[in-house]
Design goal:
Layout: H1 2-47, H2 51-64, E1 67-73, E2 79-83, H3 89-95, E3 119-122, H4 125-133, H5 135-138, E4 145-146, H6 152-155, H7 163-176, H8 193-199, E5 203-204
Parallel strand pairs: 1-3, 4-5
Antiparallel strand pairs: 1-2
């Protein structure tokens, strides 16, 4: 009986040890799994961005880079149009529905690239004819060009003033009134100090 009892005790001890090993191994796998899951979750959070925030940044970036052009006069749909990059004048006219029947096509350069913030005036044939008839009134005393009365052709004789800028000068004085001082011409998009210094001795207002 003594030997049998000793054998049972040994078996019991072995069983307890096996159970203990299984319990420890199970807890170890669970702990490892939790740690791995937490690390994976942390990694995933770091790599994930808010879609709405990303869309907002993208939209803001596109808006900052947008080019705004105001076209008026003899086009079917005058207004302000936006472009992703500086367009050719022909693209602006196309977006504005094209020329009206009264438009003077020869008065504009459709191949010209238009800068952000520009205002383009498409003149009518009647107004263009009237301007040519009054061409003599543009240039007056001392051989200077009066920017309040000069025709497009006279303005284009000034150094640095092309068709587009000449049209903008005429559009500006029709919309905002006559220039009060010669340096007011720098209110025109694209005419800054560099261009002004070239023409200031050749222009006047009255």
């Amino acid at each position: 009986m003594g030997k049998k009892n000793n054998f049972k005790v040994v078996i019991g001890v072995i069983a307890v040890l096996i159970c203990g090993i299984i319990y420890i191994a199970a807890n170890y796998r669970t702990d490892s799994g939790e740690v791995a899951t937490e690390r994976f979750a942390d990694t995933e959070d770091i790599g994930t961005s808010d879609p709405e925030a990303t869309e907002g940044i993208s939209a803001a970036s596109q808006e900052d880079n947008a080019v705004y052009i105001h076209i008026c006069g003899e086009v079917k749909k005058p207004g302000v149009y936006t472009f992703s990059s500086p367009p050719r004048l022909t693209e602006v006219v196309e977006d504005a529905g094209g020329f009206t029947k009264k438009a003077d096509h020869s008065a504009v350069n459709l191949a010209e690239r238009v800068a952000d913030g520009s205002q383009i005036l498409i003149p009518s044939k009647k107004k263009e004819k009237s301007a040519k008839e009054k061409e003599v009134q543009g240039t007056i005393s001392e051989g200077k060009v009066n920017i309040n009365t000069a025709s497009r052709e006279e303005l284009m004789k000034l150094n640095g003033i092309g068709e587009s800028k000449a049209s903008q000068i005429i559009s500006y004085r029709e919309t905002n009134g006559l220039f009060k001082r010669i340096d007011d011409i720098m209110n025109i998009s694209g005419i800054k100090e560099g261009v002004f210094n070239k023409i200031k001795d050749y222009i006047m207002v009255s």
